[in-house]
Amino acid sequence: QVQLVESGGGLVQPGGSLRLSCATSGFTFSRFAMTWYRQSPGKERELVARITSSGTTNYADSVKGRFTISRDNAKNTVYLQMNSLKPEDTAVYSCNARGGSFNWDYWGQGTQVTVSS
Predict the structure, then answer these.
(1) Which of 49, 54, 73, 94 could form a disulfide with 110 if both were Cys (CB 3.0 to 4.6 A apart)?
(2) What is the pLDDT of residue 102?
(3) Cβ neighbours for 95, distance < 8 A, ≥ 6 positions apart
(4) How far apart are CA 96 and CA 22, in angstroms?
(5) Across residues 87-102, what is the average pLDDT?
(6) Is the pLDDT of residue 100 over 90?
(7) Looking at residue 8, what DSSP letter applies?
């Protein structure tokens, strides 16, 4: 059974940091690209950061230089280190796994990040 469980969200002041984790099970993690998405009320879901199975990363322009995505294949976990947080970073952050022979697509439930003073 495939599971993706996000954690690490919460309330943080502007300029602060959070580290999100997405712990996975039930599929061959090392063969999947992992992506963090976010969605805030009234807005479309947007890609935040992606890391491929080979470790190549890409980021939304809005988070470049502030966020870092990484993966630990031994722990089947992907991380999102978020620094210099801004109120506009407030959203539900979800992780996605895509890959495998049939290009499977899996989603977590999401974790709320709120940036406010």
Answers:
(1) 94
(2) 87
(3) 4, 6, 20, 22, 24, 34, 35, 36, 37, 78, 107, 108
(4) 9
(5) 95
(6) no
(7) -
